[in-house]
Amino acid sequence: MPRSIQYTYTPLARALKMIAIAPFMVMSSQGLATPITSDRTIDSSSPVDSYEVSAGAILTANGANTYAITALDSKVYLNGSFVTATGTFGVTLTASEATIVGGSVSSTETGLRLVSGGSTAASATVSGSTIKGGVLGALIGEGNSLTLLNGT
Known about the structure:
The protein is mainly β. 13% of the residues lie in helices and 45% in strands. The longest helix is centred in the first third of the chain and has 16 residues. The radius of gyration is 19 Å and the shape is elongated. About 4% of the residues have low confidence.
């Protein structure tokens, strides 16, 4: 008959285990995203980073290269900019607005995601740009709007 042995970790063993995995926990795209809570403009001289825009802030990217951008109740303007995301959405708009002109948004998952926030819809206007994803180019939730002009 098989025996079952139950092991318990000491507090020191638990602490050492957490120290070993802690760096991987903060390396997610959300963990490394730069928070934007007031209006900010970035350009080609800005470091490539992920951005989390909230609190009604406006992120304007002029010729910038970025990783994933998420916006909650905010606005995003991408002018000749390139968003490249891996393992997450390229641009996620939750109850937010975006205008994307002359650039591209790409992701290994979904390029552009529009999500309602309660009764507030998300919207995006994409002009002369490319939106692409490994799974979907765009994912548009109910009540949200995407306008495509001269793009792919």
